[in-house]
Specification:
The complex is a heterodimer. Chain A is of the alpha+beta class. Helices cover 20% and strands 32% of the residues of chain A. Chain A starts with 15 loop residues before the first strand and ends with a helix. The N terminus of chain B is likely disordered. The radius of gyration of chain B is 20 Å and the shape is globular. Classes of the chains: A alpha+beta, B alpha/beta. Chains A and B meet through α2, α4, β2, β3 and α5 of A and α1, α2, α6 and α7 of B.
Chain lengths: 452, 312
């Protein structure tokens, strides 16, 4: 692929959208890789580059520091580190990309969780000289925990190991085995040099032994999302639309975004948590009537029967979740304020916010430990969860919620815990067990039923 | 190195594939509806610029066939392009919207603000904006900001909590996961909401083309009397330009952004229709703000500093 094909100078063509996240340890060259992707796909414009060159000179650096493209805050530039998720945008003729650029520091695990929550692909960067290290395992585990469908291992700095195939093969094998043990289903490993540009956008002239795609080629062709036709439909009601005008005196529509699946006019549906059943009478796709809608479209659904439906309800087709007040979940704690058993919190699930009690912090998960006996290390949860901790909790809610297991549905299986006093977002929650490995070997069958 | 997956994946040629514009539109509509569901008194910041016009278009679609359940707020610097004010008033009338206008001039007249020596009023908008938010008791304020505009904006959340002083603290932002937006706020605080966060300039233009959205004429090439300052073409006006050593000349130009006349530069252009504009932007080697916004060039952290003070 030549660089001229990858500019942003394409117009009018329908392209798809891929959201992905990058993760890497401090000196693995992540900023250089991001800079290289943006630069070689011609997404860095002249004035941005000029600003970076100017700022680099002011700091006494000889070469432009591409990290300055992505470090947007004063504190970040002062400290020379990335402290927060930043979003980057670039495009090729085939696809538009939203890159969640997440910091690699140990203390910012919550930022990778944030970036990975919306990502369909995660790029985990390792230094070819160091191979799989603790941080690499952490990144793989976070990608697995957040159920990011695709993981790319970018083995960077191949130029510093003489572009040697055995070095790459050993790292790729170790990483793939670890990721597979966590339940990651799709891993692609690419040997690269972000600094020299090998296999990032351009195929490398130094690694004939590598027959796979460049990183960008893979990003351009990886399937996006899942096939909605094989998923049960989930439609969280956001807002009731009732114009009450002369033109639309009786219109009553339920506005929302399909979290999964397909809805057709005539489909039988169940409204949760009430359990009322009816059929889809009509679908309005943002001002235009249609007979079919699918995830992730935002539409308005009209129902055949005049039943009580409001914001927070879930219109569901296919196998429906059983509403429950008892939730077991894997959580990533985001706030400096610890999460402890006995805490009273708010729980936001799809469009519904309810009061909840933390009944139990069962255990903390050591996501950097090697897998033993099919399980990740578990620590005691007695002292609660601190910022960046990942653990397992038991919650009791004031009202029943129609949750799916997070492993089945990232949108209807996820929730936030919020401090009722000041609105702080405390914790990100994923209903059910953390990893497929743990689930299949550890979870009793009875526990599973809540999530089906 | 690829292992088999057990769930089918959607490819770009699947019947259920969504174009990037459809995906962005669905996300933005979701954001509008979340705000309508969670807040008491939301308002849309409307400048008559293309981003706020796209915002309004999305809001109209999100609540169709009902009316948009938000009013509009325009912070008027007094240095407006007349075409833009005419456009604003036309749109408000056409959709039967309610418009609040906060005038920078009023604040200068009664001494709450002082005119800057360079004559630009863009940074002065913050005080009237915060005053209007307080007076109107608005709890959610939609802005058309995009993360691709500027590196401080790249760190901005979709739901951005502002304290009772309207201030943004980038170190204390709430993490934002999945599409679960946390709109909790105390009395006196408000939330800025950016439904176009994930759109780029090109997306906005492609969407305007696809939807056939009308824009103020100044976005398309036209002849205009301009003068050069700080490497930009500015329009002469009552705000204080040109100075004696700034000769006026007639040029074929258009605007890439719309703001205060004193700091919004025009670019040389022959693009008289939308296809030509899109081709021009796609080929441009300058960002929108780099080409046309003087206030962002003041320092490396100009935008971050203004946002901390309550700018949108």
């Amino acid at each position: 692929m030549s660089t001229t094909q990858t500019g942003t100078t394409q117009t009018g063509t329908a392209t798809s959208l891929l959201r992905f996240a990058t993760a890497g340890s401090v000196d693995d060259g992540k900023s250089t890789l991001v800079g290289r992707l943006l630069h070689d796909s011609k997404s860095v414009l002249a004035d941005q580059l000029e600003a970076v060159e100017h700022a680099s000179r002011n700091r006494g650096q000889e070469a432009p520091d591409l990290a300055l493209l992505t470090d947007g805050l004063r504190a970040e530039r002062e400290q020379g580190i990335t402290i927060d998720v930043a979003y980057r945008y670039f495009a090729t003729p085939r696809r538009r990309f939203i890159l969640a650029d997440t910091p690699g520091h140990v203390q910012y695990t919550r930022n990778m969780v944030t970036g990975a929550s919306t990502a369909e692909l995660a790029v985990v960067l390792v230094d070819a000289r160091n191979g799989v290290v603790e941080q690499t395992r952490r990144h793989a585990a976070v990608a697995a925990l957040l159920r990011v469908p695709h993981v790319v291992l970018a083995v960077n700095k191949m130029d510093l190991v003489d572009y040697a195939e055995p070095v790459f093969a050993r790292i790729a094998e170790e990483f793939t085995a670890y990721a597979a043990s966590l339940g990651v289903k799709d891993v692609v490993a690419v040997p690269i040099s972000a600094l020299a540009g090998d296999n990032v956008v351009e195929p490398s002239a130094h690694m004939d032994w590598y027959g796979g795609p460049t990183l960008l080629e893979h990003l351009e062709t990886v399937p996006v999302g899942s096939d909605p036709s094989v998923e049960p439909a989930r439609f969280p009601v956001q807002y009731v639309i009732r114009p009450q005008t002369d033109e639309h005196p009786d219109y009553r529509g339920y506005a929302g975004q399909l979290a999964s699946g397909v809805l057709r006019v005539g489909d039988p549906v169940t409204v949760l948590p009430s359990g009322h059943t009816t059929t889809v009478a009509g679908i309005d796709a943002l001002g235009r009537e249609t007979d079919i809608a699918w995830a992730p479209q935002s539409v308005t659904v009209r129902l055949a029967d005049d039943i009580d439906v409001s914001r927070g309800d879930l219109i569901s087709a296919g196998p429906a979740p059983v509403p429950t007040k008892d939730i077991e979940a894997t959580v990533s704690h985001l706030s400096e304020r610890p999460l402890r058993a006995g805490d009273k919190v708010l729980l936001k699930h799809t469009t519904r916010t309810v009061r909840a009690l933390v009944k139990e912090v069962s255990y903390r998960i050591d996501i950097t430990a090697p897998i033993r006996d099919g399980k990740l290390g578990q620590g005691s949860g007695a002292e609660g969860l601190n910022v960046n901790d990942i653990g397992h909790v038991v919650l009791r809610t004031a009202e029943p919620l129609a949750l799916d297991g997070y492993s089945d549905n990232r949108r209807t299986g996820s929730f936030l815990l919020i401090d009722p006093a000041d609105g702080t977002t405390l914790t990100a929650g994923m209903a059910g067990e953390a990893f497929d490995t743990v689930r299949s070997t550890d979870a009793p069958a009875s526990q599973e039923e809540d999530w089906v | 190195m690829t292992t088999a997956t057990d769930s089918p994946l959607r490819t770009d040629d699947s019947p259920f594939a969504l174009s990037h514009l459809d995906a962005l539109e669905a996300e933005s509509v979701h954001i509008f509806r979340e705000v309508a569901g969670e807040f008491e008194r939301p308002v849309i910041l409307f400048s008559g610029g293309k981003d706020s016009i796209v915002m309004l278009h999305l809001a109209l679609k999100a609540f169709w066939p009902a009316a948009v359940p938000f009013s509009l707020l325009h912070v008027d610097t007094g240095h407006n392009f007349p075409e833009v004010i005419a456009y604003r008033d036309r749109v408000v009338a056409e959709h039967n919207l309610r418009l609040h206008v906060a005038h920078v001039q009023d604040f200068i007249d009664d001494g709450r603000l002082r005119e800057r020596p360079d004559g630009t009023r863009n940074p002065l908008q913050t005080v009237p904006l915060l005053d209007a938010i307080e007076t109107g008791r608005f709890d959610a304020v939609f802005g058309g900001g995009r993360r691709d505009e500027e590196k401080a904006r790249a760190k901005e959340r979709v739901f951005s909590l502002r304290d009772e002083f309207g201030a943004w603290d980038p170190r204390r932002q709430r993490p934002e996961l999945w599409s679960l937006y946390n709109g909790r706020h105390a009395v006196g605080e408000h939330v800025r909401v950016f439904p176009l966060s994930n759109w780029t300039e090109l997306d906005v233009w492609q969407y305007i083309e696809r939807e056939g959205i009308e824009l103020p004429e100044i976005y398309y090439a036209h002849e205009r009397d301009v003068f050069a300052r700080n490497g930009m073409w500015l329009t002469a006006g009552e705000w204080g330009g040109p100075k004696e050593n700034e000769p006026v000349q007639r040029r074929l130009i258009r605007y890439r952004t719309v703001g205060d006349m004193s700091c919004t530069g025009a670019v040389d252009s022959e693009a008289t229709d939308i296809q030509a504009v899109i081709a021009e932007i796609a080929a441009s080697r300058l960002t929108e703000r780099g080409a046309t916004r003087a206030d962002d060039k003041l320092s490396e952290a100009a935008m971050e500093d203004r946002k901390r003070e309550g700018y949108f």
